[in-house]
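Give me structure tokens for this 233-residue protein.
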Amino acid sequence: MGLASALALISGQPYAKIRALLGDLAPQPTEPQIRGRLEIPAHCADLAGCHRRYLEGRGFDPDEIVAKWGVKGIGPDGGLYKFRIFIPIHGPRGKMVSWTTRAIGDVPRGHRYRGASRAQSAVPRGELLYGEEHVRHAVVVTEGPFDAWRIGYGAVATAGVGYSRAQILRLSKYSVRCVCFDSDVAAQKRARDLARQLACFGGDTMVIELSGKDPATAPPDEIRELRTLVFGD
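Here you go.
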């Protein structure tokens, strides 16, 4: 049990109030430290026709995604990563330190994303927020890169609902935080759990559920409303 939790239990005061009173005793986010050597999959190249068709089928402009997010494609010679979209993950200073990939064909649900191992990363993916290099004072937290692409700059992805303590600390430094996970019951529960933890750090924290099954499939008008609410666009 943490100090804030223990004091809240003893005093009977709300956890958030105790956390605020502790102030500087709360752990502070630190810059991710380079601890390994980045290894990129072989045969990573410009998007081929199959990658472009996949992105277009999901409602994205391939040229825009390449320009904004630096994705590439892996073709039939990619071995474990064949027929996938290569998605670089950058540290806050904009240097690529890890990556993930997304299958463009039909694969079992648990195998759609296949990312860098710790040995292939300069910084472990669990310590990073995908897209954080484009965040300023406000952030929208999503599950996956496609969700972040749909929302645009200012959105980050935790790579699923299993967010880490390191990711929570990274999110805590932003004054406005909006958690926008998928619409299924389990994801929404995790969204509320994350919001409760972030609320202890001050600032404004909210949970938004869009009408699509995930932000990547949300209607454009909802995305515009979300950006207006969070970023003032």
